[in-house]
From TrEMBL:
<comment type="function">
    <text>Required for the assembly of the mitochondrial NADH:ubiquinone oxidoreductase complex (complex I). Involved in the assembly of the distal region of complex I.</text>
</comment>
<comment type="similarity">
    <text>Belongs to the ATP synthase subunit s family.</text>
</comment>
<protein>
    <recommendedName>
        <fullName>Distal membrane-arm assembly complex protein 2</fullName>
    </recommendedName>
</protein>
<comment type="subunit">
    <text>Interacts with incompletely assembled mitochondrial NADH:ubiquinone oxidoreductase complex (complex I).</text>
</comment>
<dbReference type="InterPro" id="IPR032675">
    <property type="entry name" value="LRR_dom_sf"/>
</dbReference>
């Protein structure tokens, strides 16, 4: 039985060959006594949130789906542009569309969009010149978007600072630049872990690697030591190993020794 404090709403549902009438109880807004220590305004607000929680949940789900759609759309493969204007122009167009920046080989001028995302189309005049330096900092570039960049086998410098979509799968695909890439910036990438950093051992020509502020990387000092083993010519910044003293007692000597690792 529905009490006076409950509001009943009727719903119709199709059951087999006819409609069935369902009675659904819903608690209305009430001005009942609030718990101790909670003001009337707070009580009303909490009650409103409880009754509208489903709507908020749906809104969050729609927002998440919309963001995923935007990321997929931005990282689509620019195949038509590549067929019409060449792979260099297609890569340049993708970078500028993502609000990134780049520099052609043997040129000092940078191509980058303005604050409104507008950019110059002069890059179409260099269809035969490869890109040498790319800055995709704080863009939504992801693993799929690399399809537009892997053709640049002469890429020397790549900045991915603060990219929220860069993860271990993304890093595992950077091996295509093993013969050219010299500088890589992965600072402030929230989804990079040790597993992704291990894939960088393919980049034998790497000379500089920035690993600043990687929240999901545990024991960064140890990670740096391991990377320096596989990339001996690379200068790694952003993580400090510090000094670690290890005391051991060789059985054959019976005396303690201290070893300092820098």
């Amino acid at each position: 039985m529905i009490t006076p404090n409950m509001a009943a709403s009727m719903l119709m549902r199709w059951r087999g060959s006819g409609w069935a009438c369902l009675s659904v109880a819903r608690r209305p807004f009430t001005s009942g006594p609030a718990p101790a220590g909670v003001s009337k305004l707070q009580s009303t607000f909490l009650l409103y949130l409880c009754q509208r929680f489903h709507d908020v949940e749906q809104l969050v789900a729609w927002s998440s789906r919309l963001r995923s759609w935007v990321v997929r759309r931005k990282n689509r493969y620019y195949g038509y542009t590549q067929r019409q204007y060449g792979e260099n122009v297609a890569t340049a167009f993708y970078i500028l569309s993502m609000r990134g920046a780049f520099r052609f080989a043997e040129q000092s001028e940078w191509f980058r969009p303005d604050s409104r995302g507008k950019f110059s189309w002069d890059f179409v005049n260099f269809p035969d010149v490869r890109l040498e330096e790319v800055d995709m900092s704080r863009t939504l570039m992801n693993y799929t978007g690399l399809d537009n960049l892997v053709c640049q086998r002469g890429l020397r410098i790549l900045s991915l600072q603060g990219c929220p979509e860069v993860d271990d799968w993304f890093l595992s695909r950077l091996h295509v630049f093993k013969d050219s890439l010299e500088e890589l910036d992965l600072s402030h990438c929230p989804h990079v872990t040790v597993g992704g950093l291990a894939a960088l051992h393919h980049l034998r020509r790497l000379r500089r690697l920035d690993l600043s502020f990687l929240p999901r990387v545990q024991n960064p000092g140890m990670v740096r030591i391991l990377l320096e083993e596989v990339l001996p010519h690379c200068h790694i910044t952003g993580v400090e190993t510090g000094l670690m003293y290890i005391t051991y007692w060789p059985e054959s000597i019976g005396q303690s020794h201290s070893v300092t690792l820098e």
